[in-house]
Design a protein that fits this description.
By secondary structure, the protein is mainly alpha-helical. The protein has four helices and no strands.
Length: about 120
């Protein structure tokens, strides 16, 4: 499997997370939640990439499930940072929609894998 939609979307999302992290630590001086966001937000794509090189269907499915869990955690940190005033509405809306889109895609893929 070459690069596909979920690989490219999660990589682009990870890059947005890195930029958001840099903004949060330099401009907002927020170091705790932003570090959690960085860890979970970049882990999504890393696990998707690993899944593409999975040794078996079970390995592929397992890595995608980890990506899905990390997506949920990322969604939580984004909500917390937004609701505590660290992320402005306009930027939050955009990155949050991206996160939800990734979750929808991962749910779809993992459901399809489960049915096979």
């Amino acid at each position: 499997m070459g690069d596909n939609i979920i690989v490219s979307k999660t990589k682009a999302f990870a890059l947005r997370i890195v930029k958001l992290y840099q903004y949060l630590i330099t401009e907002k001086k927020e170091y705790v939640m932003s570090k959690q966001l960085l860890r979970s937000g970049t882990s999504i794509g890393a696990n998707v990439k690993e899944a593409m090189r999975g040794q078996s269907k079970a390995d592929f499915y397992s890595k995608l499930n980890i990506s899905l869990k990390e997506s949920g955690e990322t969604e939580y940190w984004l909500e917390l940072l937004h609701e505590s005033g660290y992320i402005e509405d306009k930027f939050f809306d955009s990155i949050y929609l991206d996160c939800q889109e990734i979750i929808r895609i991962l749910v779809s893929i993992t459901k399809h894998q489960k049915e096979q």
